[in-house]
Amino acid sequence: MTLQEIAAATSADGSSIKAEVMCQVLKARESVTRAGKPFLELEIGDGTATEKFKLWEDSNAYDTCSDLQDGDCVKIDATFFRNQYGMNVDGLRLRWLEKQEITDLFAGTPERRAALDRDWADVQEIVGTLKDPRLRVLCQTYLAEFGEKFRRAAAARDYHHARRGGLLEHTAQMLRSGRALATVYTGLNWDLVLTGVLFHDAGKLWELDYQPQGFVSPMTTMGELLGHITIGIELVNKLWRGLEAHPDFVASAAHMPPREHVREHLLHLIASHHGLKEYGAPVTPRTPEAWMLHHIDNIDAHLEMLAQTYRDKGQVAPGIYDYRRPLEGRAIAPLAPWAEKIEPAS
Length: 346
What we know:
This protein is α+β, with helices and mostly antiparallel strands. The protein folds into 2 domains: 3-102, CATH 2.40.50.140; 109-305. The chain has helices at 3-9, 62-65, 99-107, 110-128, 133-152, 166-181, 190-199, 204-207, 221-242, 247-251, 259-272, 288-312; strands at residues 16-32, 38-45, 50-56, 73-83, 86-96, 315-317, 320-321. Strand 1 and strand 2 (38-45) form a beta hairpin. Helix 7 crosses helix 12 (288-312) and helix 11 runs parallel beside helix 12 (288-312). The chain is globular, with a radius of gyration of 24 Å. The two termini are 44 Å apart.
């Protein structure tokens, strides 16, 4: 069972479920209450969710869990339940994972593994359709050099696609959206838009890097000092300059638009994709392609945040979900699509 499934099964106070879960220990700390009663504070994650709970000294598993270190990969068998203080566990049994189990844990569930493989295939396929050879080889070089890092990065730390593999999910869905919109808004430079989609959050490979075996995205000095927009601009410039002697770059030197104009417009898409300066954009979008990228990004981020709300939050009234940042107000259950009402046979 996954932590996300456990969270859904225990969303209401007092609900419980007995389950086994393979996970990584994100944090293990010894502490004491004000009355001097020892306890362990544990935080675990499995790529679908994270949970925190306390383990008290009178628990049969207290001594075993006292040996846990941050980063340990374990299998927990327990009854999980939630109350006003958060997640609790009872009857906990634990063992450390074997090497193959650790590999499987970080690869994700079979369903998630298959979904991410489809996303990766779509990214490569769409990149391969770009007509501008300079943008196509730029994208393919990026995927070849940083593909492994890209496939495990998150798209955000908190709000949307904030999980291992989240950046690949977000980017693939944006590329699919862009390909669909290209059939409607035919006057745009879609090679540029789709390349902007691939690179708009590329700086998060360093700002929100996941270790090869880890469900935590530690803060980095580069990420804090520069931020993903600045890092993404530097990345594109470095890749671009390194490709200027590439046959596709040389052969297209006499083609339009000029090579330097293409680079400048791509950098603008990265710089402006947040849309407004108060949201962290160094500049606001100034071209149709920049506005299109901003809105595709915004649509996918907001729909993902709503999906997470429906999945993770309880209802405070029929059809009204508990508030989740940074959405405006409480999410409302979506309207079901129209369907014929079938009357029972008489």
